[in-house]
Amino acid sequence: RKKIGVLTSGGDASGMNACVRSVVLYGISKGCDVYAVYEGYQGLVDGGDYIRKMDWRSVTGYLSIGGTSIGTARCMAFKTREGRLLAAQNLIKNGIDSLIVCGGDGSLTGADVFRSEWSGLVSELLKADRITKEEASIFKHLTIVGLVGSIDNDMSSTDITIGAVTSLHRICEAVDSVDTTALSHSRAFVIEVMGRHCGWLALMAGIATGADFVFIPERPPSEEDWETAMCKVARRHRELGKRKTIIIVAEGALDRNLKAIKVDHIKDILCDRLGLDTRVTILGHTQRGGSPCAFDRILGTVQSVAAVDAVLASTPDKPSPMIGMNNNQVTTKPLMDAVKLTHEGAAAIESRNFDRALELRDPQFLD
Ligand code: ATP
């Protein structure tokens, strides 16, 4: 009987609960035992009550709850060999040989490290008498499957990550709310949105709300003096009769010289040069989403079915898969490749190779 562990890790994203629910229900329907590992990798390291067998009713009501009900964490211990040794020991003692990890690129990097070290970890545990010879022979291989849960939509090789669309909805609602007050007072608003080094949320929010100007890391303004360029656009829109000015800034936005573009600086520019009554709104953690939109519920559900199928189809010689979404199809790609391309994409931004960064993120360029 296959024993599958499921955990959520890194920043919470709406739709993670749909993943857990789907892994539990579909896993059970396929004759597996499913265990939830609470609090991300920390639960794996700590073991005990953090690893709990789930039944059909354990996940009742999960679909509509935002975030992750089994908890998530950023776990320093898992970044150390000793932490991963403890994690391996806890998995083996619970009889779990397959792990479905839902998280961002950091979590999936950790999963990949864990799997690549697995046989070394097992030998070390055996040598230290922390597991028996029989356990070492049964748990020769660890199956890992990655699901991408992140509001940032920053993972390479998948078109969309679980939680990103819910987050985008919340951002649009917030911008719409700001719009009404901006219109009433004829004000300008500079709105900062999340996304770390990725501009997807900011760009999509800009399109969906008709913002005047958007700053994203992947396309820094081409002008050295971007302040003048931005003012030109804002002034033109005002001259055309617009009563509001909305500037959306990704938290990782950069100028041509890779210097961070700050919302307060933009506010000062709009005030000083255009005389606009300007306010800054940092949307903050409301963007994590709350109740997931239908898309993220569906995405989490269908991708997790694919994740359980991938566990059941796995063989030691096959690379760990990551479940993605490409052109509206659920896809299975090597996890290691997707993680590597994601890191290369981040490095490309740092070296100002923006086109390359976009190519690395978008699988259509790679296939
Ligand atoms: P988000 O995109 O929402 O930030 P994330 O998964 O990228 O999510 P991280 O904080 O980068 O979030 O990673 C989550 C956890 O994954 C870390 O706290 C750590 O436990 C584990 N992890 C990350 N990188 C590694 C690594 N190189 N080796 C081992 N574990 C790692």
TrEMBL record:
ATP binds at G11, R74, C75, G104, D105, G106, S107. Keywords: Allosteric enzyme, ATP-binding, Cytoplasm, Glycolysis, Kinase, Magnesium, Metal-binding, Nucleotide-binding, Transferase. Substrate binds at S150, I151, D152, R187, M194, G195, R196, E251, R279, H285, T286, Q287, R288. It is found in: Cytoplasm. GO terms for molecular function: 6-phosphofructokinase activity; AMP binding; ATP binding; fructose-6-phosphate binding; identical protein binding; metal ion binding; monosaccharide binding. Mg(2+) binds at D105. GO terms for biological process: canonical glycolysis; fructose 1,6-bisphosphate metabolic process; fructose 6-phosphate metabolic process. Coiled coil: none annotated. Its main location: cytoplasm. The keyword Metal-binding applies. Residues 3-311 form the Phosphofructokinase domain. The keyword Ribosomal protein does not apply. The active site is at D152 (proton acceptor). It comes from the Eukaryota. Homotetramer. Belongs to the phosphofructokinase type A (PFKA) family. ATP-dependent PFK group I subfamily. Eukaryotic two domain clade "E" sub-subfamily. Belongs to the phosphofructokinase type A (PFKA) family. ATP-dependent PFK group I subfamily. Eukaryotic two domain clade 'E' sub-subfamily. Catalyzes the phosphorylation of D-fructose 6-phosphate to fructose 1,6-bisphosphate by ATP, the first committing step of glycolysis. This is ATP-dependent 6-phosphofructokinase.
